[in-house]
Amino acid sequence: MTFVEANTGEAVVFWICAILSVAGAIGLITSRKAVHSALWMALTMINLAVLYIANSAPFLGMVQIIVYTGAVMMLFLFVLMVVGVDASDSLIETIKGQRWAAIFLGLTLTVVLVWGIGSALAGVPAVGLEAANREDGGNVQGIAHLIFTDYLIVFEVTSALLITAAMGAMVLAHREHWQPKPTQAELSQARFLGAGHPGNLPGPGTFARHNAVDTPGLLPDGTPAEVSIPGALKARGDVQPVDIEDVHAIEEADSL
Amino acid sequence: MTNGQFGFFGTDPWGIVIVKVLGIFALLVLLTLFTIWWERRVVSRMQNRIGPNRVGPFGLLQSLMDGFKLALKEEIVPKGVHLAVYWIAPIVSATMAFVAFAVIPFGPVVEMFGTYTPLQLTDFPVSVLYVLAIASIGIYGIVLAGWSSGSIYPLLGSLRSSAQMISYEIAMGLSFVAVFLYAGSMSTSEIVTAQQPVWFAVILLPSFLIYVTAMVGETNRAPFDLPEAEGELVGGFHTEYSSMKFALFFLAEYINMVTVSALATTLFLGGWQAPWPLSLWEGANTGYWPILWWLAKVQIFIFIFIWLRGTLPRLRYDQFMKFGWKVLIPVSIAWILIVATARVVRNEMTISTTQILLSGGIVIALLLVASWLLQARADRKADAKEQEFAEAQARPFDAMAGGYPVPPMPGQQAELTTRRATASTTTQEAIDG
Question: Using a CB-CB distance cutoff of 8 angstroms, which residues of chain B are in contact with residue A39?
Fold first, then answer.
């Protein structure tokens, strides 16, 4: 294996992206808010992508951003935002000693991966990126060639797996319509035929002596409209009774 | 990235790179100011108004002045915001909008301060994917803006906006595939070169149409401007933003418009190459002239954006999503299948003209039969609908519809009642006579 000295540009890119991606990884595990963790993770992913591009794997870098940062992480964010997991999750361990176990297992995984991949690659002769890319006329062409010849079955099986997963998600989220979906016309008819009020409720305070929300509006015949009072006020018992004098005054004015 | 394939790219001296970066930055800011003015003028003309005409010649400086005013306004930060994310969001949005322009070619190799360099900041084997990637990072700005505002309407606006952008990005990406197949490359400069005799808009017309539709959805512009449907969502994801931060979102939106237009120009309209009558002139595609053709083509797309906004009403959200997922994406996939088959047939088989004509004829015959069947089905449906309508008309009009007063259906006759009659008895009695 021959090592090539990195030029200045590459070194600058490496040190910026390496620091940022490690910072992102640390932020990911130390953040108290789930959304912040997701953002740190996105930072790490983008910086890794830049490193891939700097190492002459532009396709991998771009796919990393489009697929992982753009789609997977975005879905995560959607879920976190909609579910609203932001009540800074308590740091109490739900399983006893889980933090130490996690640290231990993480380190073990690192050792196994480094050791395994390291020893697997130790005996492989390095052709050099230039030569490998030149074989098919470029990095993208090289990947395409490998995917569609040597690794075709693996590639197709993976895609079948993903499609199955997507189908599974759709089946889980699917709600069967036992009856035909009501049309807009049917919905409006149902609204008018139903027991509830068909349109906007009458506003409180209308035709009364004052326009406070805790005073029921008066119907044309002078009787108070109970539905015009907001439910919360009614539940609290904060409703002002309509002064019966007012009603009489209105009636008198009407009869003139 | 200095592989020999991209001769001139990645070999520029530092000075030239800085000149190009500043040039692109200035161009984008100027184009934004111009586009805002132009949009206001064109929409005004379409609505029989004049539009901004006071500041500078033809009111051209109006958007500059508006920009100053916006930047100098008081900044209001609501109480419930997540401050760090609230700050980052507009920066992400605006930065990504600028960065995407790095791979757009403005012209051929020219002489700049004594060195030969292409009129394009950089290029690499997957630069079209780069634009897609940057766009997907840009969505983060919108999502984070909505979330960090700590308010429901912005959150809904941002979710809508990002769902829309992600959905239409798929159709957009699929419309690129046919271009990649024909150009044999994903680098913008090579795609432009590959359009030497004919533009891809001509030979890949369906892709072009899909892209143009998707790009309107991608930039959240009318008639697909649901994220800022003011009747439903107040102002969309940037409701809680003011002053400079709002200006950044505004800037990002307009730059994104220019970016997708520039990408359409690059991929489908031959990039910076001169259009037909001009291309007869020898020097049309040399020197700095191509920048002019490029600008003209981009402005055509911008005009289309404005035209759409002046003409079309906003779509309903479910219809819009249905259109994206159930029409645009399947049509793109079918079209890619056709293009790929055609390429394989042309590359791998020796095929005679008679065979091409014969198979073409069979396909056309099948399409005719299918369209005839579909037409017959549609006719039957229309007949059934008409009959239903006639039945509804024949039914007597019930003004109370079982409770509340309703207006007559089309074709039904309402018996007019007098005020006296309704005042003395209930409406129902009055109608019954």
Answer: 85, 144
